[in-house]
Design a protein that fits this description.
This protein is 80% helix and 1% strand. With 415 residues, the protein is mainly α. It has a single domain, classed as Growth Hormone, Chain: A (Up-down Bundle), CATH 1.20.1250. The chain has a two-stranded antiparallel ribbon with strand order 1-2. Strand 1 and strand 2 form a beta hairpin. The radius of gyration is 24 Å and the shape is globular.
Length: 415
């Protein structure tokens, strides 16, 4: 006989109620652990695929401006046109992919297809014999960015405002770490393989990345919107538009990295050393992206964005007011810190203010605006460079970055 009487409540004893509670609690814990494990697997897969894709991209990027200008005979304005055109055209597809992804609730197909496009474009670069051939492949390459908004929406869904900056920072660190290894491959194998074989080899990592996405990423419905987010969603449209205007103003002055590469070459660095400077930039960006993401989680998105704008202004000021080889190296360090700061925090900010069911659309729209500004940014910078002088693109960019900082004061955030 038990010494403790079983207390009956409406036909149920407390022991049975307690046992049922324990069973339900264990079930919830298993579900929670399973979701946590899947989230970690998703982030790890995205980081590895990003690493591989950027490894392939940055086998090409250090020698891209030299290939376009020296091998295919284009001038700086054409280089700016090619660099900007792909970004401008693909920006529309970014917005469309985000919108379609939200409508269809499909993310995965955009991600692996984007990596596949990047691989095909690099084979096209290898086969190009005159600079006009590059244009369709450049567009295809940048069209591979259709993966960005759907991927970032998945990241936003599986993260929280307290971890979102860190995760976006991790992915950017993986991107730039892949760039470091890609640059090292470029440096060590360029004299052996030359431009075209390197370009063809660069397709392989992106193919592997596409395979990883197909195998490891499971489609999941985005989480339901909380009552708090429902209240906020209708009030954020004007704030988001202001943020887009701010981003556009800054992006028009934030021209392609190609100009810094050509600047280093014309300053007096040997052609074989220019990829080393790009390595300095990528290594700095890789090391700084995650710390800046964590910092944005702690002190707020706006504060880190302000730091990023200041770093870009320092790049321009260093170009304009210094004439020393060490200063050129400092420029690439500052540029890497700028990229490490700006990229994770802007995506985290957009993810914070976007309604849950429209995250891919918001992210796609933001990326579209940035992309549309890339064409005039690089084209104007090329024209200023050719017709006025090397310093003029940087002087204009300093003014635009200062304007963006002024607009940032009026942005509301959820920090």
């Amino acid at each position: 006989m038990t010494l403790i009487p079983i207390i009956q409540i409406h036909g149920l004893d407390i022991q049975t109620v307690f046992n049922n509670f324990r069973i339900e609690n264990r079930r919830k814990n298993r579900v929670s652990n399973s979701r946590s494990a899947q989230a970690k697997k998703t982030v790890t897969t995205f980081a590895l695929a990003s690493f591989l894709n950027d490894l392939g991209s940055d086998i090409i990027y250090p020698i891209w401006p030299l290939f376009v200008t020296s091998v295919l005979g284009a001038n700086m304005a054409v280089l700016g046109l090619i660099d900007g055109l792909g970004e401008a055209v693909v920006s529309i597809s970014k917005a469309l992919s985000g919108y379609i992804s939200d409508k269809t609730k499909k993310r995965k197909i955009f991600i692996w297809t984007g990596y596949l496009m990047g691989a095909i474009s690099r084979i096209g670069y290898a086969l190009s014999t005159v600079w006009p051939h590059l244009i369709p492949f450049r567009i295809l390459d940048r069209a591979g960015k259709i993966r960005s908004a759907p991927r970032d929406a998945i990241v936003a869904d599986i993260s929280t405002p307290k971890t979102r900056g860190k995760i976006f920072g991790l992915l950017r660190s993986a991107d730039h770490l892949g760039a470091v290894f890609g640059i090292l491959i470029c440096i060590f194998f360029f004299n052996i393989l030359g431009y075209r074989l390197l370009f063809a080899m660069a397709a392989v990592p992106s193919l592997v990345g596409a395979f990883l996405i197909i195998r490891n990423i499971n489609e999941a419905k985005p989480p339901a919107r909380s009552p708090f987010e429902t209240k906020k969603a209708s009030k954020l449209d004007r704030n988001f538009i202001l943020f887009l205007i701010l981003s556009a103003v800054f992006a028009i002055g934030s021209f392609s990295y190609s100009f810094l590469m050509i600047y280093a070459k014309e300053f007096g660095f040997r052609v074989s050393f220019v990829p080393v400077l790009y390595l300095v930039y990528s290594g700095t960006a890789s090391l700084s992206a995650m710390p800046f993401g964590k910092l944005a989680d702690r002190i707020g998105r706006k504060a880190v964005m302000m730091i990023a704008f200041l770093l870009w202004i320092l790049v321009g000021l260093t170009v304009v007011f210094t004439q020393h080889y060490t200063a050129v190296v400092v420029i690439f360090v500052l540029f890497g810190m700028h990229k490490g700061a700006i990229e994770p925090v802007q995506k985290a900010f957009v993810s914070d203010i976007a309604p849950v069911e429209l995250r891919a659309s918001y992210l796609g729209t933001y990326q579209m605006v940035i992309g549309l500004c890339a064409l005039p940014a690089s084209l104007i910078a090329g024209l200023l460079w050719d017709n006025i002088g090397v310093n003029m693109p940087f002087i204009v960019s300093i003014g635009l970055a200062g304007s963006a900082m002024g607009l940032l004061i009026f942005i509301r955030s959820n920090d």
